[in-house]
Amino acid sequence: MGTLIKGGKVVSAAGTKLADVLIEGETIARVASGIDAAGYKVVDAAGMLVMPGGIDVHTHLDMPFGGTVSADDYEWGTRAAAIGGTTMVIDFALQSMGHPMTEAFKTWRAKSEGKACIDYALHMAVTDLGPNDAWLDDVDAMVAEGISSFKIFMAYPNVLMVNDATIFKLMQRTAKLGALVCVHAENGTVIDVVVQQALAAGKTGPLYHALTRPVKAEAEAVHRVVAISEMAGGASVYIVHVSCEEAMHEVKAARERGLPVMGETCTQYLVLSIEDDMGKPGFEDAKYVFTPPLREKKNQAPLWEAVRDNVLQVVSTDHCPFRFADQKTLGLESFTKIPNGGPGIENRMQLAYHHGVNEGRMSLERFVEVTAEAPAKIFGMYPRKGVLAAGSDADIVIWDPKAKYTIKAATQNMHTDYSIFEGFKVKGNARQVFSRGELVVEGGKFLGAVGRGRYVHREVTGR
Ligand code: URP
Ligand code: ZN
Ligand code: ZN
Questions:
Q1: pLDDT (tens digit per residue) in 48-76
Q2: DSSP letters of 151-216?
């Protein structure tokens, strides 16, 4: 029996209309007003918003990093995502130096298979082009496996950072293939010197993680990587976790020159700041050690405007959770040993909706665009994902715009012993979530089977 979601306001980037959504099997059969309910299981959506499920394109589940492993595996992370209204994630397979990308692909498929609660895809984080650049051919092999986006780190020297030559060669290949390069843009070499100087001066507390990573280091890296992409034949670039106005301006300038440059920011940079959230007593600040770091509050308004005006196309989370008690405390002696990252996969939709739509910083349609539709388009999954249309996967959120919710570690589903958004009060929350036609969340509870999530093969978009 099909399911008919009746009487809700159906939202897309193009507009909002009162309509019914008919699900048959795993896909949407029709979106129209006044669909006859006879023979269908009816879900009353009167007063609700009916939206494509959120797509979080920047997560780090079960990731070895900073001497430990991120606290949410594929089961916990994707369950928390679903409860928050997200029906798909794109996570990162991390190539180990000295090993081919094909190996990383296998490793990450094994981590996710049988565990993911919603659909997922992978970017490939490239760290090594191999002997005589032989692993550049892995890029083609990865595209054939449905990985249409590659990630490079311009930060984290000796761990993940690649040099400009590697970036250039990778981009020459992706430009040919029409694949996308996602970039963690920070000048890791200069930051490393600033960090060593801070440590030598006895500045070892968590606040110095933020103070040793200036906005200029981020803006410079964006500028440089855009120039490299031009020299490499116009490779498409997506700057991840843009955290400050200066870096955002580099993205804007590139787009104004007509270059295929896109970018995202993350919820933490939109609602948290160095003034409000750092400088807490003891070691509390370690909870907010992620990279790029929190910035001065004055960056928030320009970032929101960039999201509204399509300078930045996506709001993601960079969900990379570490527990406080036994993981963040690895850095008690030195901020350089604090695992970098924070939890957020569960709260992205709530925070972007409340602080974005309710507080007048973006329209409802733009909210759907930056949380679902643009991610699907940019990352090669549209119109299968990211839109409510006949033939699309029935990944649907029934959103109660009046539901009030207070974010608390005590009630969250992410496996951290704190929330970076503790006490935030939001209005608007997922009431029901469907993943490929199956009701997987109702009343804040996950109802689906662990491992039901499927790997999504993505297409290149840049040809
Ligand atoms: O602090 C962060 N962001 N950790 C995850 C790795 C990255 O840089 O995205
Ligand atoms: Zn990063
Ligand atoms: Zn990240």
A1: 999 999 999 999 999 999 999 999 999 99
A2: EEESSSTTTTB--HHHHHHHHHHHHHHT-EEEEE---HHHHHHHHHHHHHTT--STHHHHHTS-HH
CA dist 444 and 404 (Å) reads 13
Q: Residue 244 is encoded by which pair of tokens?
A: 């400050």
Q: Report yes or no: 30 and 42 within 8 Å, Cβ to Cβ.
A: no
Instruction: Please give the Cα distance from 341 to 174 (Å, whole number).
Output: 28
- Look up residue 48 and give its two tokens: 């609700």
Consecutive H or E run containing 366: helix 364-368
Residues with CB under 6 A from ligand 1: 60, 184, 290-291, 318, 320, 340-341
Inter-axis angle of helices 101-112 and 136-144, nearest 10: 40
User: Rounded to the nearest whole angstrom, what is the distance from the C-alpha of residue 240 to the centroid of ligand 3?
Assistant: 7
Per this entry, what is the length of the chain? 463
Tokens of 288: 């907010």
* pLDDT per residue as tens digits for the range 129-184: 999 999 999 999 999 999 999 999 999 999 999 999 999 999 999 999 999 999 99
Cα separation, 463 vs 460, whole angstroms: 7
Residues ≥6 apart with Cβ < 8 Å to 387: 12, 52, 372, 373, 376
DSSP H or E stretch at residue 60: none
Nearest-atom number in ligand 1 for the CA of 153 is 8
How many Å apart are CA 434 and CA 25, to the nearest integer? 11
Question: Assign residue 2 a region: left if phi > 0, alpha if psi is -120 to 50, beta otherwise?
Answer: beta
d(CA 366, CA 194): 39
Which residue CA neighbors atom 4 of ligand 1 most closely?
341
Q: What tokens does 100 get?
A: 């081919």
Smallest CA separation from ligand 1 atom 3, residue: 291
